[in-house]
Amino acid sequence: MFNIDQPDSAPDNEDHDGDVVMHGQGSFFGRRKGHKLRAHQADLIENLLPHLSLQIDSPAPEPLTTLFDPPVEHMRLEIGFGGGEHLIAEALAHPDTGFIGAEPYVNGMAKILARIEAENIRNIRLFAGDASELLAWVPAGSLARIDLIHPDPWPKRRHWKRRFVQDATVAAMARALTPHGEFRFVCDIDGYTAWTLAHLLRAPCFDWLAQRADDWRKPWPNYTMTRYGRKAEREGRRANYLRFERL
């Protein structure tokens, strides 16, 4: 199916949804800022983001659902939300669920803030930093789902240690997820899909939910395609959609 030793087709730092990856003891990989922000975007970063941004230098509330007023029923996390298309769609479709979006890329943060303001979305909180530190901050068993959609594949072998999916982050996700919670992964680079599948299959806390080929070849129901996903399709790259259940 997938060959983990097969070189990937994407170049380093291609415009994936997760344009920036930060993980591993505060390590920072990638660009923190791209194009110059427009005046309104800069205003949103300065004035709206502080109201939505999580500060993890103090303990997380327990239960985590009390981040929102009134409290929500469930909590979910999207790591590296890019332009925010998927996160916004999920938040609008599930108003009783609280969402945390982790994205250290400033331009991506500005884009999602504009959508949050325009649509008056109240069930999203944002984190502009290292997603592995955020996973360590949330209480154990507090997240119903974690999404990682089109992350940077870091295709060169010497850079594989920079991929978000590592044994340590898989263990961190297992701690943060509720029993029967899910980790969902979307990628159009076979090498990173195989890498992720190998890491999750050897993790005793996760079960791969696929029962037939279409379960990974086709998106799950009501999946919102991102701008990078559309770009990959135009360029002839086929994505795979992996779902893992927390045992």
From TrEMBL:
Biological or metabolic pathway of the protein: tRNA modification; N(7)-methylguanine-tRNA biosynthesis
InterPro entries: SAM-dependent_MTases_sf, tRNA_(Gua-N-7)_MeTrfase_Trmb, tRNA_methyltr_TrmB_bact
Record keywords, A-Z: Methyltransferase, S-adenosyl-L-methionine, Transferase, tRNA processing
Protein name stated in the entry: tRNA (guanine-N(7)-)-methyltransferase
Gene3D superfamilies linked: Vaccinia Virus protein VP39
Membership in a protein family: Belongs to the class I-like SAM-binding methyltransferase superfamily. TrmB family.
Keyword S-adenosyl-L-methionine: yes
Role summary: Catalyzes the formation of N(7)-methylguanine at position 46 (m7G46) in tRNA.
EC number per UniProt: 2.1.1.33
One MF term in the entry's GO annotations: tRNA (guanine(46)-N7)-methyltransferase activity
Annotated GO CC locations: tRNA methyltransferase complex
Binding locations of substrate: 156, 188
Catalytic activity entry: guanosine(46) in tRNA + S-adenosyl-L-methionine = N(7)-methylguanosine(46) in tRNA + S-adenosyl-L-homocysteine
Source organism superkingdom: Bacteria
Residues annotated as binding S-adenosyl-L-methionine: 78, 103, 130, 152
Principal EC category: transferase
